[in-house]
Amino acid sequence: MDTDLDSMSRDQLVAEVKKLRQGIREHRDSTGHDLCWHHPALWALLPERSDPAPVVPDWPQFMQGCVRYRESLDAQLPKAPRTKETYRG
C-alpha cells in the first residue's frame, strides 16, 4: 500500500498533498446538517478504488448514535454557535 508514492516526482507529491489537504478541509469544514452525511468523496482521494457499502444500523440504534454524536459536540465544543435551521435536503 502507498508504493505509488515511491515513483512520484516532487511536483506530483506536492500536487497529491494539496489534493488531500483540500479534501480534509472540505470534511473538516462541514457544518450544520452536513455533519450527518456519508462522505465517500473523502475516501475517493485514496488511490485504491473501493466503494464499501456501509453497514447501516436499524433506526433505534442509529438514532442513539446520532444523539451520542450530538452530545459529544456539546462536550467538545460547548461554545460553538447553535442554529435552529431546519434540514432542507
Your description of this structure?
This protein has 3 helices and no strands. The chain is an all-alpha fold and 89 residues long. The protein has one domain (3-76). It is elongated and about 50 Å long. The chain starts with 9 loop residues before the first helix and ends in a 13-residue tail after the last helix.
Keywords:
89 residues; mainly alpha; 0% strand; elongated
Largest pleated sheet: none
Number of spatially distinct domains: 1
In percent, how much strand structure appears in the residues? under 5%
pLDDT below 50 for ≥5 consecutive residues: which ranges? Answer: none
Q: How would you state the average pLDDT, rounded?
A: 91
Q: How big is the Rg?
A: 18 Å
Shape: elongated
